TrEMBL record:
GO terms for cellular component: membrane. It comes from the Eukaryota. This is DoxX family protein. Pfam families: DoxX (PF07681). It is found in: Membrane. Its main location: membrane. It is a multi-pass membrane protein. It comes from Strombidinopsis acuminata. InterPro entries: DoxX. Keywords: Membrane, Transmembrane, Transmembrane helix. The chain crosses the membrane at residues 50-70, 77-96, 108-127.
Amino acid sequence: MIGALCRFLGRACFAAIFLASAAHHATNIPEMAGMIHKDFPAELVGGLENAAKIAVGLMGLGGLLIATGFAPRLGSLLCAAFLVPATYFQHVLAMQAATDEKTKKTEMIMVLKNVAIFGALVMLFGYECGRTAPTAPAPSGGKKGKKQS
């Protein structure tokens, strides 16, 4: 019982960053579109506003699937599909282009934060739903029904 509660609370807390970000950005898609780096290939999805809508969808649906535990593996993939390009285009490129140390440090912190979040997504993807611990291997060496000494 406590394990199930902890897993739910952990998923909900982790998913909150994606859900809150999606809710915030969904209220002003044009503003989010304006934040997208000029080098991002938005033309592949029909422009910056479409890219912003896709990003909101990936974060929102991914966060919801993780928080509810309905399909946390799929949710992890959706969130990673947002996080990886966002990290590169929003933070790595900004860090490389920064001319002052404060901006470089801020962007480095953002990159490291996103790498940590990505690591948690990979870890969550690796877990099987409902599985709390590795399964112990079956005993070997004896025949069925025969006691071993």
